[in-house]
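Chapter summary example.
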Amino acid sequence: MAVRLKRGDFVNKVDGYQFPGRVVSVYTTLASRQKRVVVEATEPPYVGFQHIFRPDQLFKIDVDRK
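The structure predicted for these 66 residues follows.
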């Protein structure tokens, strides 16, 4: 079962290049009705850079909030 991502979740990319970041938005495309996730990078040198992914390209990172 896939993890449901929501705004504010910390994530990283499953395969290939790393893209540690935080979910900015989750939406459904108009034409194909597919889910997309906008992620904003949280690590240098790409802090603030945003990228759009399919949900299956990402995994959720549990961040300990103290």
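To summarize the output: The CA atoms of residues 12 and 63 lie 12 Å apart.
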